[in-house]
Amino acid sequence: MSRNTGQTVLALVTGAAIGAGIGILFAPAKGSETRKKLKEGLDDTSHNLKDTIAATTDALKSKLSHVKKDAEGTYEDLLSNMSYKTEEVISFLESKLADLKSKNTKYQK
């Protein structure tokens, strides 16, 4: 989904730059004025692209941070469940050991 968003933003910025460039080229103005307008348009597009990249980078960092926190939480839950299950197994084995000891004492008499 983020890949499609990035491609869409890039397509919009590129389309706006091309449209501005074509509009400036067909406008009746001196060459120096046209070059100045083209430079301003490229500068604006460059700034917009930098802002878009920065926003996308921040969004990705935020999502990765959330994923990392979720993974850590899942890991902690897994460890907790394993610890609980381990205690159950130990209790079960202790009860079986107690049963075996009691049976063994009956056979020893």
TrEMBL record:
Keyword Transmembrane: yes
Top-level lineage group: Bacteria
Keyword Transmembrane helix: yes
TM ranges: 6-29
Keyword annotations: Membrane, Transmembrane, Transmembrane helix
Pfam families noted in UniProt: YtxH
Name of the protein this chain belongs to: YtxH domain-containing protein
